Amino acid sequence: MQAQATVRLPDGAHPTNYLNKETTIRSWLLTTDHKRIALLYLFTIIFFFIIAAVAAALMRAELLTPKGDLVLSETYNKLFTIHGVLMVWFFLVPSIPTVLGNFLIPMMIGARDLAFPKLNLLSWYILATAGAIVLYSVTAGGVDVGWTFYTPLSTKFSNEHVMVMAFGIFLSGFSSILTGLNFIISIHRMRAPGLTWMRLPLFVWSLYATSLIMVLATPVLATAMLLIVVERLWGVGIFDPSLGGDPVLFQHLFWFYSHPAVYIMILPGFGVVSEIITCFSRKRIFGYRFIAFASMAIAILGFMVWGHHMFVSSQSLYTGMVFSFLSFLIAIPSGIKVFNWTMTLYKGSISFETPMLYVLGFIGLFTVGGLTGLFVAALATDVHLTDTYFVVAHFHYIMVGGMVLAFMGGLHFWWPKMTGRLYPEPMGQLSALTTFIGFNLTFFPQFILGYLGMPRRYHAYPPEFQVWNVLSTAGATILAAGYLMPMIYLPWSLWWGKRAGNNPWSATGLEWQTPSPPPEHNFDQTPLVTEEPYGYPLAATTHNRHTEGRQREMEHA
Amino acid sequence: MSTAAHPVDTHKPPEVNLTKFGMTTFLASEAMLFAGLISAYLILWISQGKNYEPEWLKADKFTWPVLVTGINTCFLLASSGTLYMGEQAVLKGKSITAWLGLTTILGAVFVTVQYFEWRHLYSEHIWFHTGGTYTSSFFTLTGFHGLHVSIGVVFLAITTLMAAAGKFTPHRHDFLTCVSLYWHFVDIVWIGLFTVMYLLPYFIH
Fold first, then answer.
1. Looking at the domain assignment, is residue A408 inside a domain?
2. For each of chain A's 557 residues, which pLDDT tens digit applies?
3. How far is A85 from chain B (nearest CA, A)?
4. Residue B144 and residue A236: Cα distance in Å, rounded?
5. Fewer Cβ neighbours under 10 Å: the N or C end of chain A?
6. C-alpha dist (Å) from residue A291 to A115, A359, A430
């Protein structure tokens, strides 16, 4: 539709787009274009991801043998702290929201930019500064308290650098808050004419829910981190029992943020899956409203379950029972989503392009992660499983099997839009399969290890656990190969990839109606939306399995 | 989804005040920060019950300075009133420099009184670390709020200067709107803090 107003090059590229309009470093560092900021975020979080992944690789190498022979136990503690802190706050929390969300939300709602473009750039600078501070604390001597900063370990027994790292995390929270705020206002006020709430793409819905959590939960983390700094600096008794404080109070504050943060780390993934699964099934999404409202339900319920991290703390049994019940409750909206995605596949015209492979992997792994979550949400089994590798495996199935796969799927899906180039499809499919296999081999043995009783966060272990640890380390090697491939072929495609054209997947959605890469102002004319999203040829309740609709659409394109 | 092209002008989205909405959302986030701090304080208090106040302070029949702070609270509430008058005046196109100046002064008075209150307590050896969680939570919470008020006073001063320079018109005064939202928020938080930190312990005494 944009074609009438635009001078088009033969390959469908816009003569000037957001990438080639200005190319100086200054124009990148001072940009307020949401698309450029998305790419700044992409480089930043990949940088942190690589550091955190190297820390994980060293840990897996250490765990090859029962004896602690590669690194000292102190070094090991620092490694898992680096891994956790960087992966959670500098990769997973910003991943889909800041990269894909920044790039896509204005395009999906038919806007020129986010509501506050300068604030958007500021968020990036805050995150980069916070990351630099955290890296400083690592190089200055390292922190060994794990990503959870439990007191009194963090306030009394560990070294001074804890304060620096806590301050870095405190700061990164503001990046999160401002990003969430920007998304909320944009989604409320910047939608194109005709784009009602019930016509919003599900990706936008899921990021709306995510943003609410970012704005309302992150300040409580800020409180917790700040109080650690205050207690250490002035010897104030807040968490330290010998000064009259309460160490469990820290756990309450920390998990009040960090459990909702789990949903910050998975809800955006749900959004990506909803977009991709309907596109590659060529079928309308099943139960649009249920998926949208399930996101909101998860966001709200997510605030009420933090106590399930504290079943073995001094929390009362009755409190534990309430939290256990609420945690089971939150499985319902998650279950609705998995059911609806599966129903979208049913009798769809499915094809297995790279994004779809990642997403199908997501659904399986997220289901395993979610179901094992019920084991640890049940009071009795949790007592056995707390602080074992079972917990480690459970949340990696959500964080890596869920969010990282969704991020990779989304990155591949929208890569042609972001860069105007196609990556080599067979390589993409190979990397999706490698990641899936490597992931399962890495983390499934950890369920067994945890069930057998191996505790987390130790650099040495009894010899009977070795076989499972060797399997896990072998899997990590394959997983690393799965990650490395896109890091090679995606940059390669920037120069040598085929031109993508406006809409290589024949997808619906406003973002596909503008050239790839998009012009700086996104749309030449403000789009007018007249229909629900996902107007794919096969209806959600279709009875036929033929692919006629798809062919018709291809001819049309 | 199928769309039809429309020229930009005919389908302009309705004029909305994004800045005000953004500031309100930010304040919701701030509210959660104070909610975290206040609930931490209440949990510490309730879990320790009668042992909450250290013996040596009990022996002195010590209470936080309720009267002085109560009067000081009036200054802060009055500043919200004068700021509101200023907001009304700007809509009518009148000069608001005097109202904003008065608000700034009232805010500054509040901060100054709080400062002398802290200094007085310090001279009596009541400080962050001298009385367990009883004193540490008091100083952390009032300090945190005081920091917010101080930031507010700085912004009020800037707003006053902007008003004097004639930067605000009945239709364009986003900066003023944001500062006043923030200031009213800080006031409301203070009413909560004053209730749980000064009044409740005083009456339970």
1. yes
2. 333 344 444 454 557 899 988 889 999 999 999 999 999 999 999 999 999 999 999 999 999 999 988 999 999 999 999 999 999 999 999 999 999 999 999 999 999 999 999 999 999 999 999 999 999 999 998 899 999 999 888 888 888 899 999 999 999 999 999 999 999 999 999 999 999 999 999 999 999 999 999 999 999 999 899 889 888 888 788 888 887 788 888 999 999 999 999 999 999 999 999 999 999 999 999 999 999 999 999 999 999 999 999 999 888 889 999 999 999 999 999 999 999 999 999 999 999 999 999 999 999 999 999 999 999 999 999 999 999 999 999 999 999 999 999 999 999 999 999 999 999 999 999 999 999 999 999 999 999 999 999 999 999 999 999 999 999 999 999 999 999 999 999 999 999 999 998 999 999 999 999 998 999 999 988 899 988 889 888 765 444 434 445 555 555 55
3. 21
4. 14
5. C
6. 26, 16, 30
Q: Please provide residue A528's backbone torsions phi and psi, each rounded to the nearest 5 degrees.
A: -115, 125
Cα–Cα distance, A166 to A240 (Å, whole number): 17
CA distance A488 to A478: 16
Dist. CA A15–CA A515, nearest whole Å: 10
B93-108 residues labelled b (16+ CB within 10 A) or e (exposed): eeebbbbbbbbbbbbb
**Domain span at residue A353?**
28-556
**A23 contact partners, CB below 8 Å, separation of at least 6:** none
A389 phi/psi in degrees, rounded to 5: -65, -15
Q: How far is B98 from chain A (nearest CA, A)?
A: 32
Structure tokens at A142: 């390292």
CB A237 within 8 A of CB B128: no
Q: How many CA atoms lie within 13 A of A49 on its CB side?
A: 19
Gap between the Cα atoms of A67 and A74, Å rounded: 14
CATH number at residue A448: 1.20.210.10
**Mode of pairing for the β-strands spanning A527-529 and A421-422:** unpaired
Residue A331 in domain: yes
In this complex, the residue of A184, A223, A534 whose CB is nearest that of residue B36 is: A223
User: Chain A window 87-146: which residues touch B at a Cβ cutoff of 8 Å?
Assistant: 115-116, 119
- Report the domain count for chain A: 1
CATH number corresponding to B20-45+68-200: 1.20.120.80
- Picking from A155, A177, A183, A204 by the largest number of B CB atoms within 10 A of its own CB, the best residue to mutate is A177
Q: What is the ipTM of this complex?
A: 0.86
B8, B13, B44 ranked by CB distance to A249: nearest: B44
Burial A446-456 (b: 16+ CB within 10 A, else e): bbbbbbeebeb
Judge whether A18 lies within some domain: no
Amino acid in the structure at residue A77 = N
- Return the SS3 of A222: helix
Looking at the domain assignment, is residue A129 inside a domain? Answer: yes
Amino acid occupying residue B129: H
Reading the block at residue B131, the tokens are 């009385």
The C-alpha of A30 sits at a distance from chain B's nearest C-alpha, in angstroms, of 21
Cβ proximity of A273 and A341 under 8 Å: yes
How far is the C-alpha of A225 from the C-alpha of A422, rounded, in Å?
43
CA atoms of A435 and A147, how far apart (whole Å) = 25
Residue with tokens 């599966």: A342
